[in-house]
Write a structure and sequence with these properties.
single chain, about 350 residues, alpha/beta, TIM Barrel, 2 domains, 14 strands, binds S-adenosyl-L-homocysteine
Length: about 350
Amino acid sequence: MKLSFYDLNFADLEAVLKLNNLNTSAASVLFNWHYKKKQTVQCKENIAKTSIDFFQAHYDFSLPEIDTVHESSHDKTVKFLFKLADGHKVETVLIPFHNKYSICLSSQVGCAMNCSFCFTGKQGLHRNLSTSEIVGQLIQAWCWLANNRPGEERILNIVFMGQGEPLHNFDAVKKACEIFLSKHGTSIGIQKITISTAGYIPGLKRWREEIPGVNLALSLHSTLKEKRNELIPINKKYPLTEVLNYIDQIPLQKKQFVTYEYILIKDLNDSADDAKELGELLAGKSAYINLIPFNAFPGSNYQQPEHDKIRQFKKVLDTYKIPTLIRATKGDDVLAACGQLNSKKTIQHSAQY
Ligand code: SAH
């Protein structure tokens, strides 16, 4: 079977060329073609015939196929369902902001974390995505914008907040980041990539050594052990205090923050006391809080708090001088909002929204 071209970072590509006695200058030509120009067919320009033949014989240039596209009717959110070579499906979301887009990438088919409030978790984990399947989501979404919203193909932020626990698939996610960061290709700034984790410590350990510049988001959701255990079962194995210890050891750049995501669920973690505990836990850290009102999905038992309650929660946090944002829900009419991604059930249920 051929290897995927999109599994190679720039250093890998140079090594492949060298090993096969080909001109290593082809690496920048290829990265420019596939990642800057986002060409989806094999490059045959400005590259020696021997290299063209080599890649044709040994590398595959196919990308995850777009199965379905859902465009929100109230904002410019677009949700893609991708079909992978083995038939599995994953979702990717383009989230609009100021005429640009953030892309929310999936890192696994399903997820092993089994968080009680998350639709993806209900699927269980099927498998990890490869680097090419992660990188392919961005290339395909970019090409879709170029074809369907010409002039709008500006994807300036990357967040690993789609399906899966990115730190549970560290190698593939790290390599995808290296490809996105490469100056020869997409050249995304390191501060424009955010990886969100439920607090998977083995991944955090590697993070500190290997990708400290990438932004980290922690799904926190409760400061209380019992409640967090209920919401995020891996809290039993990797408790919040240990997770925060690791995070505190990650060196941050100037003006770099750790984002703490806090999903607000009615009568579960939305009281003024909960806000106080959160403020006390994070005060003094380079923290940024993202409050995410719970998004319902078919079969979910939790509810979203009323607006007033959400605003009061934020007010308490303001007294701790921690920058806090209430995340606007986007794309919920196409089940593309946080926690609504579940490639198995999305389509049949989307009519309810
Ligand atoms: N596994 C990673 C990334 C995927 S979830 C993590 O846990 O961080 C990305 C964000 O969506 C997380 O903050 C998660 O807690 C949130 N989320 C999941 N389900 C949600 C729901 N039903 N409503 C609102 N946010 C949800």
